[in-house]
Design a protein that fits this description.
The protein is of the alpha/beta class and 374 residues long. The protein contains 14 helices and eleven strands. It has a seven-stranded mixed sheet with strand order 1-2-9-6-5-3-4, with helices on both faces. Helix 4 links the parallel strand 5 and strand 6. Helix 6 packs antiparallel against helix 7, helix 10 crosses helix 13 and helix 11 runs antiparallel to helix 12. The protein is globular and about 60 Å long. The structure holds nicotinamide-adenine-dinucleotide (NAD) and zinc ion.
């Protein structure tokens, strides 16, 4: 695998004293030590990863830390969403502290969104906050969870209910790591990539429509463009609204109110990955908006066709649900954290590349729309 710095692209998340760079390109794991060293107050790192990612990428990362004169420890967590709980968090904190860390120690999250979220929250809390670097290895983590500073773990009450806004010092996105990612996980991350086109960038959607095969075939140039475009948009939105107080960052939740209801109804299980739920949620949002006369039916069809071609679910039937489940889906939507005063807030499209926040979505229309699904 040849790697040259020239193929690496850089962008900055502008957050005043919390600003940080995102590097995107091939071969970045092998160059991580050199990228991280200048940010360190103390040449000590604790790498947190999972049992699936470690055999693929941990040795290369450790070699690069060695080459940069950085001492390091590794903590390998079990893979999967179940790791993002209080029990694993408690053990992780103990293990990190047992490494003899100081305020200047750097945490490094090497893995998908699970590793990134729990490691970020650990960084936010140990010794009242130490620096951390994200090295995301799933497409979902590369285009979404590693950027923006949301860190969290789950509790029995719900997902991501305990956490902090805590920005990393650097995000290293090595597109080569996607080579080992299962096809289904790639598709789930791809749905979040499409989301950026649908919410604010019609040209990006058109490019994805034409070039998605190159993305799936992991063509480095296409991947770098898809990830950069996604991160650039997320970085811009995060810079404008770091703590999600206004509507702008909420637009990133396009497809997610439907999506969370679908995940809840399928028990947050492997039956439906988050990105798959978002794909179906985006298709439903377009169809519902078309029903309300807010968006052209042809646009809704184009979105559905695109997601279908990507082998993502676009119908309730694709995930074993039907119109008979409308009541329960709406009940879940009523519990979504974007609900204020019991009213359902939806992000709906006006066209491909433009969405808006609809507060007080017409519940009867929503029910009739979902119930009409065979
Ligand atoms: N913080 C945020 O803003 C934010 C945004 C979106 C999602 N999330 C969170 O992200 C999590 C989901 O992230 P995810 O989809 O990356 O899941 P994940 O971290 O569970 O990774 C999916 C699977 O892929 C494996 N894997 C990771 N990289 C691999 C690679 N390169 N090759 C082979 N296998 C690999 C993992 O071990 C895991 O089994 C959820 O907990 C979600 O809440 C957070
Ligand atoms: Zn999402």
């Amino acid at each position: 695998m040849t790697t040259t710095a020239a193929t690496t692209q850089r962008l900055t998340v502008e957050l005043a004293e919390r600003s940080y760079d995102i590097l995107v390109g091939p071969g970045l794991v092998a160059r991580a030590g050199a990228q991280i060293a200048p940010l360190m107050r103390r040449h000590q790192a604790v790498v947190v990863t999972d049992e699936i990612v470690a055999p693929h990428y941990l040795a290369a990362l450790e070699a690069s830390l060695d080459a940069a004169g950085i001492s390091h420890h590794a903590i390998v967590l079990p893979p999967g969403e179940a790791t993002k709980d209080l029990a694993h968090f408690g053990r992780l904190i103990d293990d990190i502290l047992a490494c003899g860390i100081e305020r200047g120690t750097m945490l490094v999250a090497l893995g998908g969104g699970v590793v990134g979220d729990i490691t970020g929250f650990a960084a936010a809390t140990v010794l009242r906050g130490i620096d951390f670097v994200q090295i995301p290895t799933t497409l979902l983590a590369q285009v979404d969870s590693s950027v923006g500073g949301k860190t969290a773990i789950n509790t029995p009450t719900g997902k991501n209910l305990v956490g902090a806004f805590y920005q990393p010092r650097l995000v290293l996105i090595d597109t080569d790591t996607l080579a080992t990612l299962p096809r289904r996980e790639l598709g789930a991350g791809y749905a979040e990539t499409v989301k950026y086109g649908l919410i604010a960038d019609p040209d990006f959607f058109a490019w994805l429509d034409a070039e998605n095969r190159a993305v799936y075939e992991l063509d480095t140039t296409a991947l770098t463009r898809a990830v950069m475009t996604s991160c650039r948009m997320k970085a811009r939105i995060v810079a404008a609204d770091e703590r999600e107080t206004g509507d702008e960052r909420a637009l990133l939740n396009f497809g997610h109110t439907f999506g969370h209801a679908l995940e809840a109804e399928t028990g947050f299980s492997d039956a439906l990955l988050h990105g798959e739920a978002v794909a179906l949620g985006m298709a439903l949002a377009f169809d519902f908006a078309a029903r309300l006369g807010l968006v052209d039916a042809a646009e809704a069809r184009r979105v559905r066709d695109h997601l279908d071609a990507a082998e993502l679910p676009t119908d309730l039937g694709d995930v074993g649900l039907s119109g008979k489940d409308a009541d329960r889906l709406i009940a879940h939507m009523g519990k979504d954290k974007k609900v204020r005063d019991g009213r359902i807030t939806l992000i709906l499209p006006r066209r491909i590349g433009e969405v808006f926040v609809m507060r007080d979505a017409p519940a009867e229309d929503l029910h009739a729309f979902l119930a009409a699904h065979a």
